Amino acid sequence: MKISTLAAATALMTVAHAVQAADIEFWYGNTGNVETAIKAECDAFNAAQSKHHVTCVGQGSYEVSMQKAIAAYRSHNYPVLIQFFDAGTLDLMLSDAVVPVQDILPDVKWNSYIAGARAYYETSGGKLFSQPYNASTLLFYTNKTELEKAGIAKIPTTWEEVIDAARKLKAAGHACPFVTDGDTWRVLEQFSARHGLPIASKHNGYDGLDAEYVLNTTFAAKHLTNLVEWRKEGLVKLNADTKAGNYTAAFNAGECAMMEGSSGSYAASAKAFEGKYEITVGMAPMYQGYERHNTLVGGASIYVMKGRDQSEVDGAKAFLDFLRQPEQQMALTAATGYVPVTNDVLDAIAKSGEGNSTKYATAAIGIKSMNQPRTEDSRGIRLGFYVQFREVFMEETQKAFAGEQTMQAALDRAKARGDELLRRFEKTYKGVKLP
């Protein structure tokens, strides 16, 4: 991965002479090719200037990174910058451990961020609390080669078409027509957002901590019940049903013909398909009769933690400025499939002469998906202890997929357990006004 340093050096020259040098730490929670890309950006920043030095420390996963950061903050031994994933947004906003990034960098043109990247991480007043970084969204992948073998000429765009194609694939002898892992982010959050459905009352918690889950009463319940039935029919497979034991690995190996997956999965899939299959990537399927709304931004953003020396804050600002540059966003997209987060990057890709390159295949479609018409229920999720709720949802729905309870019973139980988490969170932050 090539990362231009000339523009970075120019952008940082005006800052470097006015601030004190600092060694700063940035904690992140990615592994694999994403970690490789993050390390490359850190190295590029250090090579672009000599005023600051960033040490980028991987924590293994988003969840582990969040737990370590909380523990480190309590022990007063924490980094100045930390990457947190989408589900931890409200916890961070109310933690009193971070400073809103827009307060630290008031002169940045924050409205240059695409609406889909802003909405999840901004306050009710439109102020960004964190800087969007590795932004993903849900996309629909197909193995076009396998679809054409089964006589499917048109790439499905609706769930009805997906299942029709799945039946044709099965009839043609394909063992795994469509694959998902049933993850909360994919089958509940992204499904509900693009269909304009709430997950919880109070517009998914944006209007108050007294929200309650409603996922068991919306069309999402019907979709999840459909997934159970389609799995019984042999049209849909989960991780454990595949030879690879993992849905993305099964798709990448050609075992499964269609997949709903993160844009961040694209680079690995495209590399695995090279010379074997033709891959397509498009917006996630809709049910007929529903208007398409935006998908949510996934991945993570970067927060500035409180209580650091001014020199460290200056170093953090310089690093955040560096990451915003189109060249850096293009490099991250090309290496991973994560979607650019500012509106100028698509123009930069077009001007680069590689606008049609497969390495940028997720950029335009991902931004288009996140910028679809928005509703009060598709902005994002502002629910307390939401990381724990994701685990509850998976526990209950996996039991339904295993035949231990109906999907409706699973969602009813998830709602009840989720509401208990919300009441605990509400009690913890009693009287606190949401930012």
Descriptors:
435 residues, alpha/beta, D-Maltodextrin-Binding Protein, domain 2, 2 domains, six-stranded mixed β-sheet, 13% strand, globular, disordered N terminus, transport
Write a short abstract of this structure.
This protein is 46% helix and 13% strand.
* Gyration radius, rounded: 22 Å
- Sheet/helix structural class: alpha/beta
Oligomer: single chain
Tally of individual domains: 2
Shape: globular
For the record, what is the CATH homologous superfamily label of the largest domain? Answer: Periplasmic binding protein-like II
Largest sheet: 6 strands, mixed
Structure explained in plain terms:
Helix 2 packs antiparallel against helix 15, helix 15 packs across helix 16 and helix 18 runs antiparallel to helix 19. The protein has 19 helices and eleven strands. The chain folds into two domains: 187 residues, D-Maltodextrin-Binding Protein, domain 2 (3-Layer(aba) Sandwich); 207 residues, D-Maltodextrin-Binding Protein, domain 2. Strands 1, 2, 3, 4, 5 and 11 form a six-stranded mixed β-sheet that branches. Strands 8-7-9-6-10 form a five-stranded mixed β-sheet. The longest helix is centred in the C-terminal third of the chain and has 22 residues. The protein is of the alpha/beta class and 435 residues long. 46% of the residues lie in helices and 13% in strands. Part of the ABC transporter complex UgpBAEC involved in sn-glycerol-3-phosphate (G3P) import. Binds G3P.
